[in-house]
Amino acid sequence: MSPEPQRAAARPLKDRISRRLFSDPRVGRPMAYAARAAGMNDLSRYISRWCRWAPHVVDFGLRCGDEVLSGRMYSASSQDHIVRRIWISGAAGYEAPMPSMFAAVTRQKVWALPAGAATKQGHVFVIGANSGFYAILAGLGKGARRVHAFEPYPPAYDWLEKNVKLNPAEGTVKLVAAAISDKIGETTLLVPPPRFGAVLETSASINPDYHEQVGQKIPVPMLTVDEYAKRDPECGLGGVSVMLIDIEGFEHAALEGARGVLQTSRPIVFFEVLNRASTQVAALERIRKDHGYRCLGLEPAELTFSEPVQPSEQYSNQLMVPEERMDALREAAALAGVRFNPKG
User: Fold this and answer.
1) Which residues are registered as beta bridge partners of 322?
2) Does residue 69 belong to any structural domain of this protein?
3) Are 184 and 318 part of one and the same domain?
4) Are both 29 and 136 inside the same structural domain?
5) d(C-alpha 2, C-alpha 248), whole Å
6) Are 210 and 182 in contact (CB under 8 A)?
7) Of 1, 77, 173, 330, which sits 20 to 30 A from 338 (CA to CA)?
8) Are residues 317 and 259 part of one domain?
9) Helix (H) or strand (E) holding 7
């Protein structure tokens, strides 16, 4: 029996019937809408799994220590699959444990240095911000001093702007319509052909090796992290506490262009290592070693050292952390409720 029939046979009977009944959007979406209108959110979320529906605005909450971070995002008429997944699984359930760890690392009690220290720290760079989930998380409550959200894909940037305005983090998040790499100038953003019907694309990339097929080529401005940080009077090379990089196999190029920030700011870095040839793991490992960083995998319930940098069958999201910031990482893990496994 092939894998797909095996998986189908293993599903509970209720799920098999629901899949057959609700996967037709003409049936499922009105039912999901009606259930939510009647206050039956759990039922609405269950039906939404099959018909790919989400409310016009999705409210989310995420506990981080003694804070509850409350945010809102537009579903882009159910086209934003990130917001759909947050609606169905909750903020903590999307890419777990990434949201909880990222929120924790961006809290003031984790990044703040002693009073009187000569620092501008507290700036968070979200590179490949898409429609804004992580940028909003970092800007809520007692979070970042300033969030810099970089997004070159025009449709995603439009929703990023709308979502930031929808939240109390608006005054904290600065939007930048540019790609980040190891060079400055102009580049071509490659967008794959439409897939799965109408969706807000999340895999547009300047990496020429990432997509087998290209549907659109969009000219966009390109910056390096170092050049942007130097130009920003509030930040500078020494002000970056956290970076999150999700740019479809070009993470190594962004880090090559961030060597000044890595050396001066010593930020904690979230990045993605895809289990495919386009991810330049050798370059990532070289950068890690050059700057005295440790690498950890973000497994569903724990952090585990994973060196050298390498793809994993279990998780794609990983962390680079300076040796001297391990105590801050442990504090963040405790806030997030994620086990820190130093023996991994």
Assistant:
1) 293
2) no
3) yes
4) no
5) 30
6) no
7) 173
8) yes
9) helix 3-10
Q: pLDDT (tens digit, 9 = 90+) per residue, 258-293?
A: 999 999 999 999 998 877 655 688 999 999 999 999
Does residue 23 belong to any structural domain of this protein?
Answer: yes
C-beta of residue 191 within 8 angstroms of C-beta of residue 201: yes
Asked if 254 and 319 sit in the same domain, the reply is yes
**Tokens for 290?**
């050059």
Measured on CA atoms in the order 319, 324, 329, 330, is the torsion positive or negative? Answer: positive
* Same-domain pairing of 27 and 160: no
Whose tokens are 């952090």? That residue is 303
Residue 229: C-alpha distances to residues 14, 105, 162, 223 (Å): 53, 20, 25, 10
Q: Return the structure tokens found at 105.
A: 């690392």
Count of the separate structural domains present in the chain: 2
Report helix, strand or coil for 160. helix
Amino acid at 198: A
Whichever domain contains 229, its CATH number is 3.40.50.150
Weakly modelled stretches of the chain, pLDDT under 70? 1-11, 113-119, 195-199, 208-213, 276-279, 342-344
Report the DSSP pairing between strands 317-322 and 293-298.
antiparallel
Cis-peptide into 97, omega within 30 deg: yes
Q: Is the same domain home to 193 and 260?
A: yes
| H or E stretch covering 123 | strand 123-127
Same domain, 212 and 336: yes
From the CB of residue 8, how many other CB atoms can be counted at a distance below 10 Å? Answer: 13
Residue 210 lies in a domain: yes
Determine the structural domain holding residue 153 and report its residue range: 91-341
Phi then psi dihedrals of residue 320, to 5 deg: -110, 130
Q: What is the C-alpha to C-alpha distance for residues 204 and 186, in angstroms, rounded to an integer?
A: 16
Cα 220 to Cα 185: distance, rounded to the nearest angstrom? 9
* Helix/strand/coil for 336: helix
Task: Give pLDDT, residue 157.
Answer: 96
CA-atom Rg of the chain in angstroms: 20
Provide the pLDDT for residue 28: 94
